[in-house]
Each structure stands twice: as structure tokens, then as C-alpha cells.
TrEMBL record, chain A:
GO biological process: proteolysis
Domain of life per record: Bacteria
InterPro entries recorded: Chloro_Bact_Ser_Proteases, Peptidase_S1_PA, Peptidase_S1_PA_chymotrypsin, Peptidase_S1C
SUPFAM superfamilies: Trypsin-like serine proteases (SSF50494)
Keyword Phosphoprotein recorded: no
Record keywords: Hydrolase, Protease
Species, as recorded: Paraglaciecola algarum
Entry-linked Gene3D superfamilies: Trypsin-like serine proteases
Lineage, uppermost ranks: Bacteria, Pseudomonadati, Pseudomonadota, Gammaproteobacteria, Alteromonadales
Keyword Kinase in annotation: no
Protein name, entry field: Serine protease
GO MF, one example: peptidase activity
Similarity field: Belongs to the peptidase S1C family.
UniProtKB/TrEMBL annotation, chain B:
Keyword terms of this UniProt record: Membrane, Transmembrane, Transmembrane helix
Descriptive protein name: FHA domain-containing protein
Residue span, FHA domain: 25-76
Xref: InterPro entries: FHA_dom, SMAD_FHA_dom_sf
Lineage: Bacteria, Pseudomonadati, Pseudomonadota, Gammaproteobacteria, Alteromonadales
Top-level taxon of origin: Bacteria
Length: 418, 318
């Protein structure tokens, strides 16, 4: 009997959550759209995503990456929506937030009965049910129930941690609480059953601009540029102001967890008996990158240290191996010929304030569309020992001159012998 | 006056010459002839070469042969001859030599050739082969990070040595065919010496790059030095292999050098700055004892990098 009641209660909960999902679907499907980027030449869609209406004036929120092709080539594409009845209509781009992967578009032609999602006043409590709505795989609108797990810890770009599957086509769809109020936007999936959502605050900031006139084509990149500059300044002033935690690596002391939002990993070859050297690695990186278009990401920071010790290698053998170890370093972000220049490098033998001498290579490339924004690649190898050495390496994507110089200076001077 | 006839190969290379102290020469397959030619297309009594007693001119007469006589490619029954005319009877070619025309004076013996005689030593060849092999093995040893086993390294390095010997073997074979003398030892020694020179310069180059971090000009200097070595090597190789006039040797050297150097120049230097997501830099690291020049402070390094920002900004405009 007890078992029966237990089973009954399980079924009830299940049907309850299903009911909520269904009612949500019915209630708001008129305000949920599929966003399509149409190639003007072929007349076919080149990418799809989801979007949701936030007011009666026809403003729709979606992901920046859904409309990124249009933003980069406004003459080649147009944005259209498709509603739940399959009706299509043109959209105009009103604003964008490249850092938080959001875009605001507006319906050109309004109907009499415009529906909009209400915006939640605050984030729900951790563990409550939330629902992600969207349009994966071009199949029509679906609802994915999940759990709100709070804001992602140690994240520079704040994201909501969502347990539930977000599929690629659901990008830009809303995430609603049990009352059907929007509290986030779908953005990415990091593997099975874990998704990340853009939280409420960022959506609210974007919606503040809902009365603005649509952005002119030549203003799109200007807007992105401003946002990138502000963001890198915010990130690097934080990195510059706080003291860097150090860790011991071999005989050196190196910066490790320089801030709470980088994640660090370590590795060594201590269990490899075939080789005659010891290698201990320490790697830290900022997990999120900013998506600009399918061939260009930016905003990343990577730090890598490798302690090498030629246990049974003579000094010449060690240095030959040491040379190979700093050969062929590459960019940390994705960028193509149309986006950035080639790298140019400066090399020297440098002694830092702690008396550590390194062969140092500092390389830069500039963003073609964005003034005063660069990718930095740095490699250095210490020259103080006969058969031991420390390789230090970092890459920064999308930084300004001052930020890059300040970071480089601090990085170089943060390495010392124990 | 004598009649001199020269028997030629099909490509007009002299095979044998005959000098007759008489005014006429009968040519044919018959054993009674002055010049007997064993060619089935020649009649027993084929032609007569004679000096006209009145004018003193050389002339040729067909003795009613089956296949006739060709002088400089034309059929004739009777013709006056001048020096260097080529007569073809049957399948045999004969050149008429006028002994009155003086020959060019002798080529002077080259001092360089005398000075290069030390190259022709077998013992030197052995020691150079040993030195090259030792260098190759040692550089493989330096580049390995696992336990080094000579027996595993030997085959590949011997193979490389074999590759290096392709040139001297090739040119020696050519010399043997053309001149019947190969100078194989000289060629091997020259090639190995050049290789050792290049190896040594390579090491020097590493030390220089490590110490002064040169800009683009240094690669032009490298190319120049390499070009000088390649050109002198080819010239000397030809000099040892063939007795040819300087002009001709210079032409051939220039042609081969261009073939070798042009791809290096176009691939490495003239190729415009193609996009690459990996930067180009010199990764060379050497042990502390090679660190001759001083270092700069980290602040100076960052100050200097401001120029680099301007440099990449300028790339945008290209």
C-alpha cells in the first residue's frame, strides 16, 4: 500500500511538471520565434536559432551568435523570423551585446495581437525547476525542463548553470521559471546535460535599449569595438590590481591561479621511464571566449608553465631538446586572414627584477576591424641553468596596448627562483 | 705533300687519323686500298682522294660505287675539297684535314689544378667520411631525448651520407664517360669538405642568432654565404671533372647555381607574407657558455615592444 502511494506521488510530480511544460508551451508559443539568417543570393537560410519577444513593440531577444553573420556581412544577409504558424517576417537589428552573446532585433511589421514574455523580477532559488524553450534542429518549438543551479562559479562572464540539454538550434530561446517569466537566455552546451544560460541582469541591460533606433550597418562594428575595449579593460585592470597567487614548479616560483575565474590544470611525465628528462606542466586559462563570428573568437587568456629537467641529458642535449620545446607556439584563439594581421615578433634576452634571465619572444597581431586591439603571444625560456629550465608562455586575445604591456610586465617579473 | 684523313664517329667525334705521304689515296673495302674500311655499304674500290698536280687542290672521285659519295651531305661524282669537309661513304664518315692550317696554341696548364692535387688522397677521403659520419651521428645524439643506441642511429645516418655522395659519384661517372678519367676521390673529398664547412657555419649561425637576435638582414647574409659556397663548389666540381674553357664552365656553373638557388630565393624570401596563425620566431636556445652578449631588463623589453604595436598596426594597411 505504501509502495502504491509512493508510486502515485511520483506519477503526480511527473505529470505536474509535464503539465507546467505544456501550459508554458501553449501560453507563450506566440511570442517564441525561430530566427533565420537568409542568404540574399541563394534565398536560403544559412543559420537558425530561437528568439523571444519582450514587448508589444515587437522587440525580440536572441543570441548574438545567431545573427553574427548578418552583423559581419549586412549586405549579404537578412534576418527574418518565423512564428508558430509558420508565418515569416523581416527583422531589424536594434542592438547587440557581443560580450554576453545577446542581440536585440525588432519586427518591422506588427500585427494586432502581439504577445510578449514577462521578465522575472529576480533569479529563482537554487534547485528550482526552470524551462528552456527553443527550436532545435528546425523541428518546431520544444520545451526542455531543467534545474536552476545558480550562477556558474569562477566565471568572468556570468552564466547560469543549467542542468538540461540545450541543443544548438535552441540558442537565443528564453529560459523561464515556473511562472513563465524569463530569467535567462540559452547560450551554449558544455556536454551532456549541462548548459549555460545568460542571466537576467544582462538581458535587462540589453532590453534597456529597446526604444533605440535600429543600428545602421556601419555602426555594427563600432558597437562591437566599444564593447570589446570596455570588456578587456575591465578584465585586465582586475588582473593587474590584484596580487597573483604563485605556485612552485621545479626550482621556480610561477604565477598560478592569478584570479578566481581562471581554471588551472597540471601534468607531468614522472611516470614515463623511457625519456631522460622530467617535465612538469602547469596550465591556467579563462574558460569562456567571446564569439565574434564563426572564424573569430577573442577574449581568451591562457598561461602555461613547463619545468624541464634533463635528468640524464648532457647540457648540449638538454638545450637541443629545450629549443624544440619552445618551437611552434600558436595562437590561443581562432582568427583568419580577414580578421587579423600576421604575427610580428620581438626577441631578446631579458633579465627580470628577480634576476631570472630568459630568452624572451613577444609576438603581436592586430585586429583589422578593431583599432588598438591585439592578440598577444609570449614565450620565454630561462637560461640560468646547465640542464634545467623553465618555459613560460601566455596568450591574450583581444587586448589593448596598455593592458597587454601591463600584463606582460607583471608576468615577466612574477617569475623567480626559489 | 701529305693527305690526312680522320675517321669520325656518327656524332663527328674523331676516332682515328690516317696520314698518307703520297698524292692520292684509294679508299674501299678491298685489301689493296690505301685506306681499307670494313663497312658492308662501301664498294671494294669506292673512291679516290687525290691532290690535283696542277692546282694543288684536294679532290675526290667516285669510282663508280654502288652507294655514291656525300660531301657535306650532298651526293657528288667529283668534287674539290677544302679542309674540314666531311665525306660520307656507306655508313662511314671521314674528315679531310688540311695540314697547312695552324692549330690553336696549347691551353696553359692551370696552377689551380696543381694546387688541388692534395684533394686526390684516399686517406683524406677516409678521414672526411669518418668526420661527416661522426658529425651526423653526434647531431642525432644531441637531438634525442631517449637513450641513444648507436646501432639504431647508424642506418639512417649512413643513408644520409650516401645521399651526400650522389653528386660526386654522378659527376665522376660523367667525367669517366666523356674524358675517361673519373677523379672520384677528388670529387668525394670536395663534396665532404663542403658539407663539413656548411655544418660548421650552421653552428656558427646558431651562436650568432642566439646572441644578437638579428632582423631580416641576417637571412640575406645567410643566403649570400650559401650562394657563394654553392657556386664555388659547383665550379670546382666541374673544374676537376672536365677540361673545358673557363667561359663554358662559368656558364654551366651559373645555370646549375640558378637551378639550386632560385627555389630557395623564391620560396624563402620573395614569398609574400602569407597568413599563418603561428608566429615566426627564432627558438634557438644555447647553454649558458654560449651566452656572450648581455641581457636587457624586463622594463626595457616592454618599452621596446611599443614599436612592435606600431609595426603590426602598419600591417593592416597592406
Amino acid at each position: 500500500m505504501r509502495i502504491f502511494i509512493f508510486l502515485l506521488s511520483i506519477i503526480c510530480t511527473f505529470s505536474h511538471s509535464q503539465q507546467t511544460a505544456q501550459s508554458l508551451f501553449g501560453q507563450y508559443q506566440t511570442a517564441l520565434y525561430q530566427i533565420k539568417i537568409i542568404d540574399l543570393e541563394s534565398g536560403n537560410k544559412s543559420s537558425i536559432g530561437s528568439g523571444f519577444q519582450v514587448d508589444k513593440a515587437g522587440n525580440i531577444v536572441t543570441n548574438y551568435h545567431v545573427v553574427s553573420e548578418y552583423i559581419y556581412y549586412p549586405e549579404k544577409f537578412k534576418i527574418v523570423y518565423m512564428d508558430h504558424l509558420g508565418e515569416e517576417g523581416p527583422l531589424k537589428l536594434v542592438d547587440l551585446d557581443v560580450i554576453n552573446d545577446l542581440a536585440l532585433v525588432r519586427k518591422v511589421n506588427l500585427s494586432d495581437a502581439e504577445e510578449a514574455f514577462p521578465i522575472a523580477p529576480e533569479l529563482p532559488s537554487q534547485g528550482s525547476n526552470i524551462y528552456s524553450l527553443g527550436n532545435p534542429h528546425d523541428l518546431g518549438m520544444i520545451v526542455v525542463p531543467g534545474t536552476f543551479n545558480g550562477l556558474k562559479k569562477n566565471s568572468f562572464y556570468q552564466r547560469i548553470h543549467f542542468t538540461g540539454s540545450i541543443n544548438p538550434g535552441m540558442s537565443g530561446g528564453p529560459v523561464v521559471n515556473e511562472l513563465g517569466q524569463v530569467m535567462g537566455v540559452n547560450v551554449a552546451t558544455a556536454g551532456n546535460q549541462i548548459g549555460f544560460l545568460i542571466p537576467l541582469a544582462k538581458v535587462n541591460e540589453l532590453i534597456e535599449n529597446k526604444d533605440a533606433a535600429p543600428l545602421a550597418n556601419d555602426q555594427l562594428k563600432v558597437r562591437i569595438h566599444t564593447q570589446l575595449m570596455v570588456n578587456q579593460q575591465r578584465l585586465f585592470s582586475r588582473l593587474k590590481s590584484q596580487p597573483w597567487k604563485t605556485a612552485n614548479l621545479g626550482q621556480a616560483s610561477v604565477p598560478a591561479q592569478i584570479t578566481e575565474f581562471v581554471s588551472c590544470w597540471g601534468d607531468s611525465n614522472a611516470n614515463d621511464t623511457d625519456v631522460l628528462y622530467l617535465s612538469v606542466e602547469n596550465r591556467c586559462r579563462l574558460d569562456e571566449q567571446i564569439f565574434l563570428h564563426s572564424g573569430l573568437t577573442t577574449g581568451g587568456v591562457e598561461l602555461e608553465f613547463e619545468w624541464l629537467e634533463g635528468k640524464d641529458l648532457s647540457q648540449h642535449r638538454f638545450y637541443s631538446f629545450y629549443t624544440d620545446s619552445i618551437t611552434g607556439a600558436g595562437a590561443g584563439n581562432k582568427a583568419g586572414k580577414i580578421d587579423v594581421t600576421n604575427y610580428r615578433c620581438q626577441e631578446d634576452k631579458v633579465t627580470n627584477i628577480h634576476g631570472v634571465t630568459s630568452k624572451t619572444v613577444f609576438c603581436l597581431r592586430a585586429y583589422k576591424d578593431y583599432q588598438q586591439l591585439y592578440d598577444v603571444l609570449f614565450v620565454a625560456a630561462t637560461l640560468d641553468h646547465q640542464d634545467k629550465g623553465l618555459i613560460s608562455h601566455f596568450t591574450l586575445a583581444g587586448v589593448g596596448r596598455e593592458s597587454a604591456s601591463a600584463f606582460t610586465q607583471k608576468f615577466m617579473d612574477s617569475i623567480e627562483w626559489q | 705533300m701529305a693527305i690526312v684523313l680522320e675517321l669520325l664517329s656518327r656524332k663527328n667525334i674523331p676516332l682515328k687519323h690516317f696520314k698518307f705521304e703520297q698524292d692520292y689515296v684509294c679508299v674501299g673495302r678491298d685489301f689493296n686500298n690505301d685506306l681499307r674500311l670494313d663497312d658492308p655499304y662501301i664498294c671494294p674500290s669506292h673512291m679516290l682522294v687525290a691532290i690535283d698536280p696542277e692546282s694543288g687542290q684536294l679532290m675526290v672521285n667516285d669510282c663508280q660505287s654502288t652507294n655514291g659519295i656525300k660531301v657535306n651531305g650532298k651526293y657528288v661524282k667529283q668534287a674539290n675539297l677544302v679542309s674540314n669537309d666531311i665525306i660520307k661513304i656507306g655508313r662511314t664518315r671521314i674528315r679531310i684535314i688540311d695540314t697547312k692550317v695552324p692549330l690553336p696554341i696549347a691551353m696553359p696548364l692551370s696552377e689551380l689544378e696543381e694546387n688541388l692535387s692534395w684533394l686526390n688522397k684516399l686517406s683524406l677521403a677516409f678521414s672526411l667520411v669518418f668526420a661527416c659520419l661522426a658529425y651526423l651521428l653526434f647531431s642525432q645524439y644531441l637531438n634525442s631525448v631517449e637513450e641513444f643506441k648507436l646501432i639504431n642511429a647508424l642506418p639512417s645516418e649512413l643513408g644520409q651520407l650516401g645521399m651526400m655522395l650522389i653528386w660526386p659519384l654522378g659527376i665522376a661517372t660523367l667525367a669517366k664517360v666523356v674524358k675517361k678519367e673519373s677523379h672520384l676521390i677528388n670529387q668525394i673529398n670536395l663534396t665532404l669538405l663542403t658539407s663539413l664547412l656548411i655544418f660548421a657555419l650552421n653552428l656558427l649561425q646558431k651562436v650568432i642568432i642566439f646572441n644578437i637576435q638579428p632582423d631580416g638582414w641576417f637571412s640575406w647574409l645567410e643566403l649570400l654565404v650559401f650562394a657563394v659556397i654553392v657556386i664555388s663548389f659547383i665550379w670546382l666540381s666541374l673544374f676537376i671533372a672536365f677540361h673545358q674553357p673557363d667561359k663554358r664552365r662559368n656558364y654551366i656553373t651559373a645555370a646549375i647555381s640558378i637551378l639550386v638557388l632560385a627555389p630557395i630565393l623564391t620560396l624563402g624570401f620573395l614569398k609574400d607574407d602569407e597568413f599563418n596563425s603561428r608566429p615566426k620566431y627564432n627558438p634557438i636556445l644555447l647553454a649558458p657558455i654560449y651566452n656572450i652578449t648581455g641581457t636587457i631588463g624586463s622594463e626595457d623589453f616592454v618599452d621596446k615592444s611599443q614599436k612592435l604595436f606600431d609595426r603590426v598596426d602598419n600591417l593592416k594597411n597592406n
